[in-house]
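User: quick one, fold this
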Amino acid sequence: MCWNRKKKIELIGGKQLFSLLDVRDAASGLVALSQTKYSQWKKIYNLGWHNKVYSLVEIAELTKSRLEKRGYSGIDISLQRKDDIRTYAGMDATSFFQDTGWTPRYDIEDTIDKTIDEYIDSHK
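Assistant:
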């Protein structure tokens, strides 16, 4: 996904599914794990957001909406290929939630907002 000065978000496919987690949540999740007894750890955990997945098109639409709220209008989302690129990057983090008592705090809108704000601030 690319947002450029031409105000275009270009996607290939668009139906790919992703489970996203804010880096701030990833850090706090690892801290929560470090505060549990090592002897109780499972061999493998998934760290994610309540089994929620988003399509690439949904992520682009949310990004467009969040940009428009900041006055960036006229953004076009373009599908470069309508071929279905099969990707499912979802995960079940239930055992992590149960074993640590931790849950993520930042939803996708928070993450997109923070990313946009950081990008805008770094390009002033």
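User: anything notable?
Assistant: The chain has a mean pLDDT of 88.
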